[in-house]
Amino acid sequence: MSAALLEVEHLAVHIGGLVAIADASFSVPEGSIVSLIGPNGAGKTTAFNVISGYMRPTRGSIRFAGEAITGLAPERVAERGLVRSFQRTSVFMGCTVLENALMALHRRGKAGLLAALSPWGAVRREEAMLREAAWEMLRFVGLEARAETLAEALAYGEQRRLGIALAAAASPRLLMLDEPAAGLNPSETAECMALIRGLRERGMTVLLVEHDMAMVMQMSDSIVVLNQGRIIATGAPAEIRANPEVIRAYLGSEAAHVAA
Ligand SMILES: Nc1ncnc2c1ncn2[C@@H]1O[C@H](COP(=O)(O)OP(=O)(O)O)[C@@H](O)[C@H]1O
Ligand SMILES: [Mg+2]
């Protein structure tokens, strides 16, 4: 097993008087797909918020690529190669697919949007490279033919795929996806899974929060189960599926969700 890219140790997050995460420790090996699952309110999104710098933990430490990132701002965390997507996508609906791809690459690029608009030759060359990268990204997610379409005119599944592509634009080392398959039909879910696998093949490590258990069981190298802010199990899909405490706390009541 490869070294841990992300190490979360004794993480606690108190929000007001409420304990969103009590004491959670887990790690994500480089090159793996790890899923964080659990019932609503378990603390999954809070964990994402804290790891990616959008919230400060009450206690505990987060290490990424061997260095402490606890309490760093989201932009600093992203610069180091840890990027998350949101439950609602970050797609700009009034822009075309290609414009969205370009903006994502600009945002993550060194030059930035303003510099790219400058008349300097060097920056223009960079602009040409960004365009090429944007087209490559659209080919990769299967949206090349939709490049000139407004994002708002895309099918829902295409919008979600574009959202993942935008988060992946900077080739982060760790991509954290919060419910990427929410609201997708079975064929869109299959496309979403193929896309995530493709990102892993490109060298990205993936931390996934997802309620679609068929997808989680098929995609994950390992699964971390959170319940009421505590980790109740960690292991390979077959172990998790057979774990009595996980079935009691989550999977038992998930039958309807799996079928949905
Ligand atoms: N901003 C917030 N203010 C108050 N309570 C919150 C906030 N964010 C999360 N919580 C609470 O923290 C707990 C964990 O929530 P969350 O991380 O969203 O769970 P999950 O994503 O697993 O459904 C829940 O009890 C939720 O109500
Ligand atoms: Mg959530």
Report on the architecture of this protein:
Helix 6 (156-167) packs parallel to helix 7 (186-201). The chain is globular, with a radius of gyration of 19 Å. The chain has a domain at 90-171: P-loop containing nucleotide triphosphate hydrolases (Rossmann fold). The chain has eleven helices and ten strands. The chain is an alpha/beta fold. The mean pLDDT is 88. It has a six-stranded mixed beta sheet with strand order 6-7-8-3-9-10, sandwiched between helices. A four-stranded antiparallel beta sheet has the order 2-1-4-5, with helices on one face. The protein has helices at 44-51, 74-79, 97-108, 112-116, 121-140, 156-167, 186-201, 213-219, 237-242, 244-249, 255-259; strands at 4-15, 18-29, 33-37, 59-64, 67-68, 82-84, 174-178, 205-209, 222-227, 230-235. Helix content is 40%, strand content 24%. Strand 7 (174-178), helix 7 and strand 8 (205-209) form a beta-alpha-beta unit. Bound molecules: adenosine-5'-diphosphate and magnesium ion. The site of magnesium ion has 2 residues, from helix 1.
